[in-house]
Amino acid sequence: MIVRRTTRWLDDRLGASSFARTALDKVFPDHWSFMLGEIALYCFAILVLTGIYLSFFFVPSSRDVVYQGTYAPLRGVGVSEAYASVLRISFEVRAGMVFRQMHHWAAVVFVAAIVLHLCRIFFTGAFRRPREINWIIGITLLLLALLNGFTGYSLPDDLLSGTGLRIAYSIALSIPAVGTWLAFLLFGGEFPAHDIISRLYFIHIFLVPAALAALISIHVALIWHQKHTQFPGPGRTETNVVGSRLWPSYAMKSVALFFAVGAVLGLLGGVAQINPIWLYGPFVPQAVSSPAQPDWYLGWLEGALRLFPNWEIRAFGHTVANPFFPAILLPGITFLLLYLWPFLEQRFTGDRLHHDILDRPRDRPVRTGLGAAALTFYGVLFIAASNDVIAKLFQVSITGVTWMFRILVVVLPPLIGFGVYRFMRGAKLTGAESMLEVPFSAMMRSRPWPDGEALEKSEREEEVRA
Amino acid sequence: MAVAFAVSAVASAGLWVTYWRGGQPQVEGVLIALALGGLAVGLVLWAKDFLPAGGLVEEREPLASTPAERRAFQRDFERGEEYLERRSFLIKMLTVALGALGIAAVFPIRSLGPKPGRSLFRTAWRTGSRVVTEDGRALTAADLPVGGVLTVFPEGRLDADSQTLLIRMDPDEFVPQPGRESWSPAGYVAYSKICTHAGCPVGLYEQGTGRLFCPCHQSVFEARDGAKPTAGPATRPLPQLPLSVDRQGYLRARGDFPEPVGPGFWNRP
After folding, report:
1. What are the angstrom distances between the C-alpha of B259 and each of A109, A396, A453, B42, B120?
2. Reduced to 3 states, what is the DSSP secondary structure of residue A376?
3. Quick check: B264 and A312 CB within 8 A?
4. What is the complex's ipTM, to 2 decimals?
């Protein structure tokens, strides 16, 4: 009754019924991997909710105060207002600790879900025409998520995050031509300048979240408008979507997923300690903690900084400092390639057709092999970010560990990439339904099956004809 | 399903009680997990058991507009464009005005920070600065045992860029750099504590080998040999501060570091 009256009231003014009806009846394809992006979305929702709570208590100021709160070991110690306020959130504000830790865990899971979602899109070819725009938006979302993760964990002004900011300042300094100015403008002077915390705060709670919210809306709206891709299967064609209706099946499952994400983050936030800044201590420029690792999603950059050889360019009275190569050039190339991937692939395969049916990774051995090589590369960098921990754990020299990783990061990606390529090729040629059914001989054959090339060519021709 | 919702309701009630009694992070975490998890389980089971799933087919309409629609758009756009193009001089002036405004909007960025100037080339060390600890105690040549190490600053200044490692070396093991034979009185050697790679404090000193380690990216410097980097990503030695001992026995700097401290930057020669 009430629904009927509201509907009539709204429809008289907006004429929304016809749109709303198509929305309710919209069909979504079923596959578990289509939920990864949704998990990221719900992490974002929880980040916003917990973040609003935290923002009511956090003080973005690096003014010196003497800590007088309830955490006894630090009482009487000179700390910044920002650090003191995070201690207050953790120990004095009721529900502050659980929300702060949920917030941090949500950030960790947010980026993880985005990266897995990206892998799903990549390996199934979901970025192909007509979805290149949404791919670009998605890559931007990843970039913004990384940025907001870094600005967020830098806010408490503790020893670990202060060291991270110190490194960020040095990276900014290393940029050719504009680096010195850029670092001074960003930080408001020579490190440790006092403006940085309040600037990071505004970036973290307004600029980036606003951009994230806007882009997420467009991202979802485009999925809505272009309709979701689906895996090949009986009855599924390029001109239909097979699955379940939004109302009520998907709506209920999606709400359930939101609660499930919240439940996991709540549990982690309550029982799994994260970023215990009271153990790190306040930031002091001449102190440093060891071992020091950033949050996981910056591990690849940290590893690159540790592995990159001691090269630096000095010429004509100028220096291109060492951090530029691993910390500016590498991520620059990484994101450039990510942005350009759909277009590069179109150029190399010549496939510029409209696709609504997904590839299985084995259908595209080259792409899958390249993706596996890239993941291996960043995986080795990620592990190398803990070269000190590894050296200590196995009681070996740090120099030896560093050299091992330097070799691995060059050798392993092509090996793994080629192995995956062969495996996928074998799976494709034998037509195995499950990848586990691929006979070993098919993977190991030094040349593809005699008709392999022909098969691929004829497939491509078919696509062109279609 | 009903059980799951009941668990959720009970857990939520538990949250009220926990909060009211002062809060406890672990309990809150478990209760949040149960409250939200109960809802999630209940809804998933509901969707699975009682709601229709799968098998529905929706047609995809072509995304692209028809050629006629495209042509119509093109025509309408060009019709408007023609009016604008007739005033080509006005268009040029408008471009100039907007460009000038855009450049004007760039200037305020300059307010974000001071001019770097020479600030990266200098630290607070001056000729005659007494060497003091973090809490301001001036050091004499008798204060450190051989093998000892301390973080020191110029008297009266705790500037981050002036942090310096004071190491007392065994004179037999220490090899002064050519031209710097007089910089290390009584075995006291001072190096900038800021790593020349990414600026972290070089916080670890291994007395037995005379090596300095940066804990951030694992650069290694040989303290006995001019703090030259021997492993890791650092490319330059830690700059050395010339020291002397005055008549009262206090350690003093004989000037600033001879080169910029810390990581490289564009206008560093």
Report:
1. 45, 35, 62, 68, 10
2. helix
3. yes
4. 0.92
